[in-house]
Amino acid sequence: MVSASLSDTGYQGRVDKDSDGYPEGKDFFTFASVDGKALRLRLIPQLEQLATALKAFLLEDKNKRFERALDLQFAVPSLQMFRTDLRTRELGSTLGKLKLLGKSYPDSTQASIVARAAHEAEKSLQEVVPSVYFSKRYEKYPRFRAVGFWLPESPEEYKEDLPAFSDTLFFNSNSLKAKKAAWTDLYEVLFEEEP
Amino acid sequence: MLYTAVQKKKTKNFTALSFIVQILLLVPLTGLQARDWPKTLKDFPKSLQTKWDSDGTKTQQPSWFPKISCEAAWFSKQPAEVRSQKLYQFDFEKYAREKYLKKDPKALGCKKGTEEQTRLCVLKKAYADFNQSLETGTSNDGQKIPSRARKDCYKKWTILVAMDADNDLHPYSLWDIYEMETDYSGSERAGSTLRKDVLIQHDGEGNTGIQRLHIFQSPQEYKIQSMDYFKAQTIWDRQSPLVDFKEEGYLDSKKARFIDYISWGMKNYPAEHYMIILWGHGKGWLVRDKAQVSHLSGSELANSLRRIHEEVLESKRPIDNFIADACFMQGIELATELSAYTRFTSGSAQVQSFLGLPYRTFFYELNSSFHRLGQRLKRQAQQFEKKGRPDKAKAALATWEILKTTNPLPSPALSPIWSRLL
Questions:
Q1: Which strand (E) or helix (H) includes residue A33?
Q2: What mean pLDDT, rounded, does chain B reach?
Q3: How big is the CA angle at B352 (ends B346 and B353), to the nearest 5 degrees?
Q4: Of B8, B11, B6, nearest to B282 (Cα)?
Q5: At B22, is the pLDDT very low, low, confident or very high (cuts 50, 70, 90)?
Q6: Chain A contact probe: residue of B274, B348, B363 with most A CBs at under 10 A
Q7: pLDDT of res. B24
Q8: N or C: which end of chain A has fewer CB within 10 A?
């Protein structure tokens, strides 16, 4: 119904053409509903496990630590970014990419652990987002769930955005009861600059 | 920050919600994909059960919540000939222009004031009169019988739209209200009905104050209009009745005005389910432009909903659905912050056109999809039985049982079941 309404011949598609209020917005349109309880009880703990696995992957080989961090940072721009000045990436397609990490690093035990954690998180994300709609331009992303999350692509961006995100519940969530919150810990390692 | 009145960038928010709509046809298969079909209602995943509570606990209501539904309090007292009338159509000509605006304000109890103050007072009297006609039952011999005020009974849903249009979005806000209230070729599918109320707090461009409208279907025929049509209009060209009016700058922050409005709406229009739609410019969690001082930030929004949850709903139940009809508002950070106070958070992760959600489609679906869906599910159940698939037939009927409890809005949580079935 939304799709029909927003198409060029649909109701909103037609009226949008006559407005001067960013009519091309419908081509970028996404809409998702998130189940709050499922998010807290299922997805966030699994995303923490994923962050923990990613950190372990970075630290798996001391000699390759910064090389792997750079590999991950270089991969960020290829992820689906929303057309915004914010550094947000799409969570579903990001998890889809992380599931392939084991293939990129066949010799790494931790990479396959990351892949498994991403797979589990992706399954939860499907349940956490019970309904989603997005325009055709995103159809090339098979695991797209139209939910953004903060993912900088360089230490500079990380430092710039950190004050805004450092107090968020998500960034500080520590259901694993580790010494540090998983995502805080991961980003510190990921964006630590090589001495 | 999400919501700013001094947005200079054209990043309005379009959005589209209507999970109903999404539920209808578009939702991909999700949670139940890997499960066996539930045999009975009891076998459904708890998160999909009645009342939507993932832990299966029954939803409680705050202490002020009425004990009787408006349907029972009002409708049952109406004789059949009255019930067949268009009770939920607000005729602006009849109630305001002819009946009130031409009368002596003093006779209506409006004190002396400026012309605008007098007009607002008279319009509120018109609303009170119209509202009373909904709240008062009529006996079989045509006599009015005392009934309950709206705040003393509950409906299934109350939808509270907070429109921040004191910016370049102003004509679009009028456009969206027009979509919500104009006639659907004679059938009552716009605005409020016996089972749901739609209210809007509208903060328009300039020093025009803040209006609270109760959206009803008007007799005005719907036509596709141009942008110029709305640019030439004001909020007073809309037909739905004015319930309340606040002076510009009432309370000292957007956050305070938002909390006050939602609290007022919940207590004066009690409902089993509440949907809040935040309408305006959005910037997600993070905003860089420090010059934009007038805003409702992500943390302020979370704090606002926390206060509403604790102080109005007395921590007894979450808000059923929070929708941001604004750009960039669906992110894991914000959803996490809101998850303790809302069952579902809906929004767009991306920019939108200024027109936002397709309200014309949305409200039509809210008022019409339920019965159509019920018929469809029952037909499906019969077909499954014939095909020797009693498990799916039972699932269809069980879905229908759940849906009946959420009438007229099916829960978005049911979408996986529905998608799988249909």
A1: strand A30-35
A2: 74
A3: 135
A4: B11
A5: very low
A6: B348
A7: 30
A8: C
Enumerate residues 309 to 328 of chain B having a beta carbon within 8 A of any beta carbon in chain A: 318, 321, 327-328
pLDDT in tens, B256-312: 999 999 999 999 999 988 999 999 887 776 655 545 545 667 888 888 999 999 999
Q: Which residues of A touch B27 (CB under 8 A)?
A: 130-133
B329-347 per-position pLDDT tens digit: 888 999 999 988 888 888 8
Residue-wise burial string across B260-283, b where 16 or more C-beta atoms lie within 10 A, e elsewhere: ebbbbbbebbbbbbbbbbbbbbbb
What digits encode the pLDDT tens for the residues A133-155?
787 778 877 788 889 999 999 99
**A3–B343 C-beta distance less than 8 A:** no
Residue A195's CB: how many other CB atoms inside 10 A?
Answer: 4
Contacts of A103 (CB under 8 A, 6+ apart): none
Instruction: Give the closest of B26, B318, B355 to A2, CB-based.
Output: B26
Separation between Cα atoms, residue A159 and residue A187, nearest integer Å? 10
State the Cα–Cα distance between residues A94 and B284, nearest whole angstrom: 19
Q: Is the pLDDT of residue A19 over 50?
A: yes
CB contact under 8 A, A34 and B18: no
- Kindly state the DSSP code that residue A26 receives in the 8-state scheme: G
What count of other Cβ atoms lies within 10 Å of the Cβ of residue B37?
19
